[in-house]
C-alpha cells in the first residue's frame, strides 16, 4: 500500500479544523440578535385619585365577582350564561387558539427540517444497425441494390432510491428568535384581549339588566299613576254630571290621565329592546329572556363606600391596558425581525441517498451517496425593500406604544369619571327621595283640601303631576346610581376570574382524511 504523504494529511486536517472553527463561530454568533430589546414602558401615574374623599377609601378594591354584591341571583345566572355563550367571547377564545398555533409554527422554524423520499424509476432502450451492399455487372449493364436492417439489442431495468435531506438555518442574527418572541407576546396579548372582552361583556350584561329593571319600575309607576288619575277623572266626571263641579275640572282630569297613559308604550318598547339586547349578550335569540324577565324584581342597588385603591393598581388589573402593553412588546420584537432580514443568513444542508435495482437491496447491496455543507446568503441589492420593512415595523411599534399610552390614560379617566359620577348620583338620589316624600305629602293635602272645598282641582292635578315626575326621576336616578357602580368596577378592572377553556374549537371538522373532492363543478 502506498503511504499518504504527510503534507496531504496535514492539509486535510487543517481544512477540517477550519471548517470546525467556522461552524463553531457560526454557532457562537447564533446567540446574537439585532434590533431593539424590549423594555417594559414606564409611565408616570398619580399617587392618589383626584376625586377621592372619605367615601372612597384607598384600600385594595374587591373586584372578584363584584356583581354578586348586588344580591340578584338572576343577574348572577345571566352573567354565567353570557360568559359561556357570548359570541364575542367565543371569538376571543379562537384568537387565543390562533395565537398559540402561530407561536408553535414560528418556533418550529428554529429547528432543523428533515424530509424523507422514496422513488422508483423504470427505464429502457433499443438499438438498430443499418447496412447496405451494391453490386454492379459490367456485361449486361444491370444494377441491383439491397439494404438489410439488423435489429440491435435493448434492455429495461428498475432503479429504486430512498433517502432523506435535512436543512437548518443557524439564525445567526436572531430573525427566528425575534419572530418567536413576537408570537409569544401575541399569545399574551390574545389572553389579555379575552379578559378585556369578558370585562366589557359583564359590564354590558349588568348595565342592561339594571336598565331593564328600571324600565319595569317606570312602567309600573306609569300604570299605577294612570289608573289613579283615570279613577279621579271618573269621579270628577260624575260630579260634573251631577252639577257639583265644572267641566274644566273633568277635562283636566281626563287629560292628565291620558298624558300619563301615553308614556307607557314608549316604556314598553324601551324595555323590550333592552331585554332583546340582554338576550343577545348571553348568546341567545332576542326573545329568549322575555319570559324569565317578565316577573318584576327590586332594582339592584349597591352599598357605599367602594374602595378604589391607587392608580397604579389599575394598570395591573385592567386587561385592556395589559393587552396594549403586550402588543407593544410584540411590535418591538417585529422590529428586530425586520432588521435581521437585512443581514446574511447561514444554513446547513445535507442529504443521504441509497440506490438499488431491487427494493430489498436498499439496505444491503446498494450504492450510497451523501452531501453536506453550509450555505451563505447575503442580501446585496433589493431596491431598499428590506430597509423599508424596518421602517414599517418601527412605525407599527410607535403606533402600539401610543395605543398603550392611550389605554393607560383612558383607564385613569374611566376610574375618575365613574367614581365622581357614582357619588354625585348618590347625593342626587338622596335629594330625590326627599322630593318624593314632600310631593306625596303635598298631594295628600291637595286632595284633602279639594274634598273640603278649600282649593281648586287644578292644585290637585299639579300636585299629582309633580309627584309622578319626582317618582319617575327617582327611579331613573337609582338606575344611574347602579349603572355608575357597574362602570366603576369595570373601570377598576373587575371582570371574570373563573376558568375559560380556550382549547375547544367552535367548529368540529369531520371526514378530513384523503377522499374524493365532491365540491368541484
Topology:
Blueprint: H1 6-29, H2 73-85, H3 87-107, E1 113-125, E2 128-136, E3 143-151, E4 155-169, H4 175-241, H5 247-281, H6 311-317, H7 319-340, E5 345-356, E6 367-377, H8 385-451, H9 457-492
Antiparallel strand pairs: 1-4, 2-3, 4-5, 5-6
Helix pairs in contact: 2-4, 3-4, 4-5, 4-7, 4-9, 5-9, 7-8, 8-9
Explain this structure.
With 521 residues, the protein is an alpha+beta fold. It has a single domain, classed as Outer membrane efflux proteins (OEP) (Up-down Bundle). It is built from 9 helices and 6 strands, in the order H-H-H-E-E-E-E-H-H-H-H-E-E-H-H. The chain has helices spanning 6-29, 73-85, 87-107, 175-241, 247-281, 311-317, 319-340, 385-451, 457-492; strands at residues 113-125, 128-136, 143-151, 155-169, 345-356, 367-377. The chain has a 4-stranded antiparallel sheet with strand order 1-4-5-6, with no helix packed on it. Strands 2-3 form a two-stranded antiparallel ribbon.
Taking all Cα atoms into account, the compactness measure Rg is 43 Å
Instruction: Please state roughly what percent of the residues sit in beta strands, choosing from under 5%, 5-15%, 15-25%, 25-35%, 35-45% or over 45%.
Output: 5-15%
Strands side by side in the biggest sheet: 1-4-5-6
Low-confidence runs: 1-14, 26-30, 130-152
CATH topology-level fold name? Outer membrane efflux proteins (OEP)
User: How do the SSEs run, as a string of H and E?
Assistant: HHHEEEEHHHHEEHH
Q: Percent of residues in helical segments?
A: 55-70%
The global form is elongated
CATH level-4 homologous superfamily: Outer membrane efflux proteins (OEP)
Helix-strand category: alpha+beta
Mean pLDDT across residues: 85
Q: Characterize the biggest β-sheet.
A: 4 strands, antiparallel
Domain tally = 1
Q: What is the CA-CA span between the terminal residues?
A: 72 Å
Helix segment count? Answer: 9
Number of extended strands: 6
CATH C-level category:
Mainly Alpha
Q: What CATH architecture do you see?
A: Up-down Bundle
Biased composition (Low complexity): 114-150
Protein name: Efflux transporter outer membrane subunit
Family: Belongs to the outer membrane factor (OMF) (TC 1.B.17) family.
Keywords: Lipoprotein, Membrane, Palmitate, Transmembrane, Transmembrane beta strand
